[in-house]
Specification:
The protein is about 45% helix and about 15% strand.
């Protein structure tokens, strides 16, 4: 909240005038991370960061709906990012999202006030479909849409800072979360391999020729994945281990893959999302590690040590 002015009262007009641009700035990183934002989280950020006095939770549906209405005035075919604002109890949007899904997908039963309870499987199916469309949009496309809607730029640095802020205050056993490389930081071999994997997805598999690749991607658990590929039909989480990793470190890598896959699946609002885990190494795997990967259904790729 800005200390040099009085807070906005949470009227519909004020929320529409001063709450929609911040809401989209916060929701874009959520979409890029393949996650959701609860009504309570959006309420808190409007109060603590956008300068609003108390916003009743029942008003958050208005913010999400008005944001989507404004977006559709500029781009009628824009994915329904408002569906990522969800109830804490069930991880799904409230009934207000039904009218948007009904219009987009031509299923008028979703427009009923009781659609969510009367047709839960139908609701889930189209909610999955809407979220899937949102998750496929790239950072650059979101930035372009934001500028078209609000007439101001949204830079990669702003998006990255907002993504980082999603993890602020998270701790693990009293230690701030995120990639912990030890006192010496990330080594040059690990960094080089991580960036090569980001930049060469088709080298891992020919089906990865058209993916969105990101490195050092934060999960809602506070962990950070070396590389994530977003494919049209699935998400790939990748842990890399360079040539200096010993067998103990490779074993840790296996269980990092297990964790990252489980957390990424839990973050995804779609029903039974497809998430694959890959371990990329520069060294040939010991038999024990290869067996462990097979046991946990984790793919392996051995990267060439000599790379252009």
């Amino acid at each position: 909240m800005m200390p040099d002015r009085k807070p906005y009262s949470a009227t519909n007009q004020n929320l529409a005038d001063h709450g929609l641009a911040p809401a989209l700035r916060w929701l874009i990183p959520v979409a890029l991370d393949g996650s959701t934002m609860t009504y309570g989280e959006l309420k808190h950020r409007l109060e603590s960061e956008a300068g609003f006095s108390t916003v009743f939770t029942t008003r958050i549906g208005f913010v999400a709906g008005e944001l989507m209405n404004l977006i559709q005035e500029v781009e009628p075919t824009a994915p329904l990012i408002n569906v990522l604002v969800v109830n804490q109890d069930d991880g799904q949007p409230s009934k207000g999202a039904g009218s948007f899904m009904a219009q987009r997908f031509g299923e008028m039963r979703l427009n009923r006030d009781d659609a969510k309870t009367a047709h839960p499987k139908l609701w889930q199916r189209y909610f999955n479909r809407a979220a899937d469309e949102v998750y496929q949009v790239t950072e650059a496309e979101w930035a372009q849409l934001f500028e078209r809607v609000f007439g101001e730029p949204l830079t990669p640095d702003q998006i990255e800072r907002s993504r980082d802020k999603r993890q602020d205050g998270t701790e693990r056993d009293g230690i701030k979360t995120g990639r912990n490389y030890g006192p010496g930081g990330e080594g040059p071999f690990h960094e080089a391999l991580r960036l090569w994997v980001r930049d060469n997805p088709a080298a891992l598999h020919r089906s990865f020729h058209d993916v969105t690749a990101k490195t050092e991607v934060d999960l809602d658990s506070g962990d950070r994945v070396d590389v994530v590929y977003k494919c049209p039909d699935r998400t790939i989480v990748i842990e890399v281990k360079s040539r200096i990793s010993n067998e103990a470190d490779l074993r840790r890598g296996v269980f990092q893959c297990v964790k990252y896959r489980a957390v990424r699946q839990a973050m995804d609002v779609r029903d039974e999302p497809t998430v694959e885990a890959w371990l990329v190494t520069e060294a040939k795997l010991p038999g024990r590690i290869a067996a462990l990967l097979k046991l946990h259904d984790i793919r392996h790729f051995q990267a060439p040590v000599e790379r252009d």
